[in-house]
Specification:
The chain has 473 residues and is α+β, with helices and mostly antiparallel strands. The chain contains 13 helices and nine strands. The strands form two sheets. Strands 1, 2, 3, 4, 7 and 8 form a six-stranded antiparallel sheet that branches. A three-stranded antiparallel sheet has the order 6-5-9, with helices on one face. A hairpin with a 2-residue loop joins strand 3 and strand 4. Helix 9 crosses helix 10. The radius of gyration is 63 Å and the shape is rod-shaped.
């Protein structure tokens, strides 16, 4: 659009220049009408460019300009029929020029619009002045005049008119550049101030974080010191407790028969004793009274220290019953042990104590075996078959039991190659079977059946690996 504006503007000045050489009146009038069409078009294009450049809204002035321009075209091209009707054309052109000169839209750059319009008004006024009577009159007067001052004045007016638009546009661009530069400088200052504030805030934040970190580090150091002190105290107490339990283990081991003592009673035997804790709630006894030989296994309630205390009580009571009082029958031994446990733990006086034990007693007299069990089965394997001797379903001791209870006794003939297995519930309850589940009594019976014919030392080796995994045996 700007290129069209420059082309049409050049044509108007070209037309003004060519008029001086025209002798034909009709062609002269045609050029005059041509100018009446082209120059308003130039003005309208300029107004449109200004509106678009300055982002101005299309006001009623602009709409009125369109109407006037259309009427002017119709008047020049059709009504006037290219006849010398300069006065009517000129009045319409004046209206168009002044309305377009004062056309203002709603814009924040109205002051910049005036810079453009300053050059635009000059161009209008010059055209109005030179076209007051006729364009040819001015050109003939200008080029035929011999007065230097007249030539100078009109030449200056012409130069000002020609240069008004580029000068005004240059002024606008300079003003806009300066305004933009000032705005950018102001924004830059604001950004710098904001950056400084952000930096200050960040420094303050870092300072606060540093103070908080120091505080936290101090608290952590103090808390770590407290924890270390508490840990040290706990370790000392744990060491004392462990030392005491280890000492208790030595005491508990002292009441258990040694391998040599066991061999003097039963030459062929093996004992697998792997407590879950340092001390154990399980214990075993091998005793001899005359020609009566005993193998006893007991599983006390509780584990660790409570179970160990019960094992000490049970072992001491068995010595009293068998050695001191001379009771030899396995079923009577269990009955007396039940009575003494209730008495020792004061369960007969209504004290709510459920402590007690499960036990199996095997008596070997000559070639006879007498077996009694309190809630613990006994396995017998001979001729490749395993037999489970069912126990009496009652335990030794307990506050709910009667003072006097009896146990059954099983009498068997001792045979060559017969194996007897006494065991607590620890081996079957340990986790080490398939999928990490309990080993269970069924698997234990199958294992014993598969190894019973092997030497006793070999059987023990077969049983040890699983017992290490478990909780207790």
């Amino acid at each position: 659009m700007y290129s069209l504006f420059l082309i049409l503007l050049s044509l108007t000045f070209l037309e003004a220049y060519l008029v001086r050489f025209i002798k034909d009146l009709n062609f002269y009038l045609w050029l005059a009408n041509f100018d009446n069409v082209v120059f308003p078009t130039v003005c309208f294009i300029l107004v449109t460019i200004l509106n678009k450049l300055l982002n101005e809204k299309r006001s009623w002035h602009y709409k009125f300009l369109c109407i006037v321009l259309v009427y002017h075209y119709v008047d020049v091209l059709f009504i006037g029929e290219f006849q010398p009707s300069f006065n009517r054309h000129n009045y319409i052109l004046y209206i168009f020029q002044y309305v377009s000169t004062f056309n203002k839209g709603n814009t924040q750059k109205s002051s910049l619009s005036e810079i453009f319009r300053l050059g635009y008004i000059k161009l209008h006024h010059f055209y109005t002045f030179v076209d007051r009577d006729s364009c040819s009159y001015y050109l003939v007067f200008l080029w035929s005049s011999t007065d230097a001052w007249v030539i100078a004045i009109y030449s200056c007016l012409l130069i000002i008119a020609i240069l008004s638009i580029p000068i005004s546009m240059s002024a606008f661009l300079a003003y806009d550049f300066a305004s933009t530069s000032r705005s950018l400088s102001k924004k830059l200052i604001e950004v710098e101030e904001l950056s400084e504030r952000s930096i200050e805030q960040e420094k303050e934040k870092q300072k606060i974080l540093a103070e908080q970190n120091e505080m936290l580090e101090s608290q952590v150091i103090e808390r770590t010191k407290e924890i270390n002190e508490q840990k040290k105290i706990i370790e000392e107490k744990n060491k004392d407790i462990t030392d005491s339990i280890n000492y208790a283990q030595r005491i508990q081991r002292s009441i258990l028969p040694t391998e040599n003592e066991i061999k003097e009673i039963f030459e062929n035997n093996f004992v697998l004793f792997k407590p879950r804790d340092i001390v154990s709630g399980d214990f075993y006894q091998f005793k001899k009274s005359g020609d009566h030989r005993y193998a006893i296994l007991a599983d006390c309630t509780g584990h660790g220290v409570p179970g160990a205390l019960m094992s000490m009580i049970g072992s001491n009571l068995l010595n009293q019953i068998i050695i001191e009082r001379g009771i030899i029958e396995p079923n009577r031994i269990l009955s007396e042990l039940h009575k003494e446990v209730r008495s020792t733990l004061r369960q007969t006086s209504g004290l709510q104590s459920h402590d007690g034990m499960d036990a199996s007693v095997v008596l070997m007299h000559k070639n006879k075996l007498f077996i009694a069990s309190a809630n613990r089965p006994v396995y017998i394997v001979k001729n490749g078959e395993l037999t489970e001797l069912k126990p009496d379903k009652r335990s030794i001791g307990g506050s709910q039991a009667a003072d006097e209870i009896t146990f059954n006794v099983v009498e068997l003939e001792a045979e060559m190659g017969m194996m007897l297995y006494l065991f607590s519930d620890g081996y079957a309850d340990q986790f080490g079977g398939e999928a990490g589940k309990k080993f269970k009594v069924k698997n234990l019976s199958q294992l014993l059946l598969s190894i019973h014919a092997k030497p006793l030392s070999t059987q023990k080796k077969f049983l040890i690996p699983l017992s290490i995994i478990g909780k207790k045996t």
